[in-house]
Amino acid sequence: MARDSYDDTYSRPVRRLLLAVIILFLITLVLIWRIDNPRVERIRAAIIDRYVPNMEWAMAPVTGLGRIFEDFQSYNRLFEQNQELRRELQQMRAWREAALQLEQENARLLDLNRVQLDPELTFVTGIVMADSGSPFRRSVLLNVGARDGILDGWATMDGLGVVGRIAGVGDRTARVLLLTDAASRIPVTIRPSGQQALLEGDNTANPLLQFVEDAEDVAPGDRVVTSGDGGLFPPGLLVGQVVITSDGELRVRMSADIVRLNFLRVMRSHPGTTLEDTGDLIGPPWPPPGLILDENGALVPDNAARATAPGTPETAQ
Fold first, then answer.
1. Average pLDDT rounded to a whole number, residues 247-269
2. What's the CA angle centered on 198, arms 195 and 203, to 5 degrees?
3. Residue 157: CB partners within 8 Å, gap ≥ 6?
4. Distance between the two ends of the chain, CA-based, in angstroms?
5. 10 Å Cβ neighbour count for 134?
6. What is the pLDDT of residues 301-314, one digit of tens each?
7. Pick from 74, 156, 158, 261: which is nearest to 167 by CA?
8. Is the C-alpha dihedral spanning 13, 18, 19, 23 positive or negative?
9. What pTM does this model have?
10. How many CA atoms, within 13 angstroms, populate the side-chain half-sphere of residue 30?
11. Which helix (H) or strand (E) holds 46?
């Protein structure tokens, strides 16, 4: 017990002395490193040349830890750059989709502008809002209606051909019954033969041609246009081309892209004029039996005209 107290009493001053020496050495080292003097600079260089090369083994862990820290910082920067590139790539994909949609819409609008129509025809362009059809009814909705002057029965076209007709008008919307619908019937003309026919929808992509006068004069690829009969559709609007199925049916391949409808033209149909005054094209009606026309063009009985006419037997007597 006495020995332990003696050792403690002896070691305590030694530790204090050692600590004081270390502190003094460090203070001296700091002062040497901080003093800006040529003589001190030579001392610093001599110390570095003497001890630093021999202490590479002691600095190796510190150097390794520094490199690990730098690598970690580099990895963190790469991760942040990767995340930023991913966000930019996602934005670019969204912009690409928007650009493709705008390109398609622009192409369809250009198709609408390139269609050559009768200069007397006017139209209203609408955007297809939704497909309100079903497996048994094919129709779409437009964002134009009665406030835009749309009337029931008017023809609608896309960039190439006839799509259908207006079959319901609201204040701000209108429903278009497609030519492929089973309830659709329009008169058409097949060119160049001039055959008249009825285009009948049957809920398929290629509607039927019915009541063709002479099917032998119709060939695949003949153009089908609206005939204008009935005064509902303007004449000469392109519908499609004739195709003949394997079972001999005459059908029409639609020029309009029924599956992808974005914009539609609603063609304003103007009622045709009627001839009320025949003028000199048609002569006077044929007189009924017992009446004839006199010199003044008036109807008189046949006997009276004979009695007054010069040179008749009655006058001679």
1. 87
2. 135
3. 115, 123, 163, 237, 256, 264, 265, 267
4. 193
5. 9
6. 766 545 555 554 44
7. 156
8. positive
9. 0.51
10. 6
11. helix 38-51
